[in-house]
Amino acid sequence: MSHIQFVPAATRKPKPDEGGLGFGRIFTDHMLLADYDVDKGWHGARIVPYGPLSLDPAAAVLHYGQELFEGIKAFRGGDGKVRLFRTEKNCERMAAGAARLCIPPIDPAFMLEMITELVRVEQDWVPRAPGTALYIRPTLIATEPFLGVRPAKTYTFFVVLSPVGAYYAEGIDPVRIWVEAKYVRAARGGLGAVKAGANYAASLLAGEEAKKKGYAQVLWLDAIEHRWFEEVGTMNLFLRIGDEVVTPPLGGSILDGVTRDTAITLLREWGAKVSERPVSIDEVREAHARGELREVFGTGTAAVISPVKELCYHGESLVVGDGKMGELSRRLYDTITGIQYGKLPDTRGWLRAV
Ligand code: COI
After folding, report:
1. Nearest ligand 1 atom, CA 71
2. ipTM of the predicted structure?
3. Pocket test for ligand 1, best of 70, 167, 254, 256 (most atoms within 8 A of CB)
4. Which protein family is it in (predicted)?
5. First vs last Cα of the chain: how many Å apart?
6. Given this structure, which CATH class describes domain 5-165?
7. If you ran DSSP here, which 8-state letter would residue 52 be given?
8. I want to staple 351 with a disulfide (CB 3.0 to 4.6 A). Which of 176, 270, 317, 346 is the partner?
9. What is residue 2's predicted lDDT score, i.e. its pLDDT?
10. For the residues 249-273, what does the mean pLDDT come to?
11. Which burial class, exposed, middle or buried, applies to 110 when counting CB atoms under 10 A from its CB (0-12, 13-18, 19+)?
């Protein structure tokens, strides 16, 4: 562990019942911290007992939201081994997002090393039950106590770990989605392509209103014309229209999802016609009217593949296919989780043993 200091916890928490993990409620015995200042750069990487952070109330993150995070999973295979899935992509994405938020990026190779080391220390926390994983939440925050608006001069990087089950209560049962016509998540040129906490804050009110109407998630439309599909906020979106699989392009306002890239790669390997192109609510309504809206699904680290059974737009309900998980969604789910749990061969170098 060369330059990562380790301060073991004096006591260990009991491990949770794997049947009722839910998502993001339980945290492990240790966390990782590192600090940045102008003189030393990123330094002081250490794994310490899990606990509250000490933060000055004037810390910039608390006032101006100079923050971003990542979502990664480690899986326990049937052979008992623990593996990370495409984590280098998350490390690269965090470095790119940090630059957008004027946060000094962490070298992706060093970030990967820190995460690997923390998961190694906490490997007993990686659950074994089917569909479970250890969710990894790296976060970067501005800590300088200063109330002027400018990039902070000091930062903390931390990583916490949480054994998780399914993200949605529905698991992989198809969800109903509300197409949001009033609120906007992100405009091009803003922070939509960055995993900034601010994007999630912007999504909460629409999410609450949708939930009251019985919808699990909000599908965001573009900020200018309110016509073009963007993303679901916790997931990227795919639609199977006739024989084409369509996903909105990375235009600067949606997240470059790792599971999105994984799905595109697999679908193309299987010979499917995949288009990264703008897709509008009008096109989807017309496809639905023709009976060609065959599948809709979201992709994300937390949710993996989440099939959608209904889109509701301005009170009009568009039922997708026969309302069940579609053929491609199922194949993607089985293949991605098959690779993640070591049941299928990792021919693309996506796994990293810890
Ligand atoms: C993820 O899929 O990891 C996410 O970050 C989505 C959400 C839980 C914020």
Report:
1. 3
2. 0.93
3. 167
4. Belongs to the class-IV pyridoxal-phosphate-dependent aminotransferase family.
5. 13
6. alpha beta
7. P
8. 346
9. 53
10. 97
11. middle
